[in-house]
Amino acid sequence: MADERAILDIPDLRMLEVATASEHVAEFESSWEVSPHAVALPVLQPSGIPFANEYTVDGVSIRYGGGRGKYLGGIAHEFATQNLGVYLVVRPDMSFARSDVLHVVDIAGEGSAQTCFVKAATRRLLGRILKRAVELVGEACAAVDSEKPGSHVEGIVLDISDLWPIGGDAGRIKLNCFCQECRHHFDGPGTRGLVQEFERFPNPWNLVLKTTESGIGHINDFGWDVLPQKLINLSHLKGFIDDLKGYDAQAAADSVIAYMRARHALTTRVVNEFFTQIREDVGAPELRRVLLLEGEQYGWTSGVFLSQLDDSSVCDELWFNPTAHTFDIERVAYRPYMHRRSRYFVNALFDLMYMCGDEEKRTVVGLAMFSDKAVADLLEHRRRQAVSGRLGTNLDLASLPQPSDDQSRGRIGFVGNTLTDGISKELVGGVSIVPRVSGAIDDPGSDLEGFLSAMIKASTDDP
Ligand SMILES: [Zn+2]
Ligand SMILES: [Zn+2]
Questions:
Q1: Which residues face 216 on adjacent strands?
Q2: Longest dimension (CA), the chain
Q3: Which domain holds residue 282?
Q4: Ligand 2 centre and the CA of 322: distance in Å?
């Protein structure tokens, strides 16, 4: 049997505040009884850039092991001394970039504080930050031991799982992004006039997406070649269009399919351009190109059909959560991400941790409405969601397909994080929630989570 090429994912550098690099490695080994050969480190934190840079006043440092402040390079150095290679993860959501210029715009023209990856300016900025990160981590690895071949930056991981957030309320579904640059793409041959069909209510998305108490219900169990009738059947089965009188399901199905394919084409094109550019910028044509996303056939928030990414012109490797589906990934390599819905619940927890401690988020936007107690409850809820989704046992590993002998295709290992119950409790325990300004609006009560998911972060409601 071929070896498991395992990767330890550090979803947020604050993981290193509560445990050191060697402690995370030990935690990983005690979960799956496999030693990681590489670590995945984030290039961005929700609060900013974790190293000195030309864009922000100071880099964001973390108190390594609860002690001295360290930046990305120092942390990479700690893992390099454990002989681990490094993957750098980019989640293209620079919510700390305050300028609306970079932000996504939904179909109704409302902006939100997440950057649009189609915009050339976003990719240029991310590319520069990433290039600097590759240099810093490369230097940190080289400094460990020049005798040994040692660790180096092996690949770039793009977390595309939430590129295109979904908002919605009262039956209205609002997809992102329809900024000028995105619209320009949809204005191309084959999809001219398509966007206008979605600029009304009801529209074709109502066939396959529905607002619920806890977020957005959706149909995603179909591939690139889905027939319109299948979408209509699934929609009736889920009761999505039962209340919509005079709804033309046939026309809607055709438009939805045209939309998904155009969004997929747009997403893969910009991903491809980004990877090509970064390889060129750092002069490393062998850098592995990895995409991280959820293990669903069509991802409404990633904008891609998973099976269509099995294409070495798009990427070298895919990371997605193991699912009941068998995805026959044959042309590129893949590593299952050992968490339900991949990074979804994990990212949601770290985003909320950040918001709780941020004065502006606590005063101006969504969280401002909630009492300190309600925010603490929500944080604990998110923590439990994140921990319970972890597939952190040897049994979870044993149920995966056998590792492939060929390192360039099929399953070559797995990716796991160390967000255990113990580590997550320490992390959440360290969050000091900024107190609410008195006189703010009262709690909306029991619908807290539903309200928040609709307001702050679009949430698809897979169990
Ligand atoms: Zn856009
Ligand atoms: Zn889903």
A1: 211, 460
A2: 73
A3: 5-455
A4: 13
Asked if residue 455 has pLDDT above 50, the reply is no
So what's the ipTM on this one? 0.67
Measured from the Cβ of residue 173, the count of other Cβ atoms closer than 10 Å reads 25
Domain assignment of residue 14, yes or no: yes
Q: Count CB-CB contacts under 10 A for residue 295.
A: 21
Mean pLDDT, all residues of the chain: 90
Q: How many domains does the chain have?
A: 1
The pLDDT value given to residue 347: 94
Residue 150 · residue 141 · CB < 8 Å: yes
Cα of 344 from ligand 2 centre, angstroms? 10
pLDDT of residue 142: 87
Q: Where residue 345 sits, what CATH number does that domain have?
A: 3.20.20
The one-letter code for the residue type at 265 is: A
Query: Do the bridges between strand 288-292 and strand 317-320 make them parallel or antiparallel, or are there none, so unpaired?
Result: parallel
Per the domain annotation, does 462 fall within a domain?
A: no
Distance 70 CA to ligand 1 centre (A): 34
| 30 phi-psi bin (left φ>0, alpha ψ -120 to 50, beta other) | alpha
| Distance of alpha carbon 336 from alpha carbon 322, whole angstroms | 6
**Per DSSP, which regions of 103-240 are E strands?**
103-105, 111-115, 153-159, 166-169, 172-175, 209-212, 215-218
pLDDT at 458: 41
- pLDDT tens, position by position, 393-420: 999 999 999 999 898 999 999 999 999 9
Nearest ligand by distance to the CA of 122: 1
CA of 415 to the centre of ligand 1 (A): 30
CA 397/CA 198 separation, integer angstroms = 43
Answer for the pair 150, 144: CB distance below 8 angstroms, yes or no: yes
Q: Which helix (H) or strand (E) holds 347?
A: helix 344-356
Whose atoms come closest to the Cα of 295: which ligand?
Answer: 2
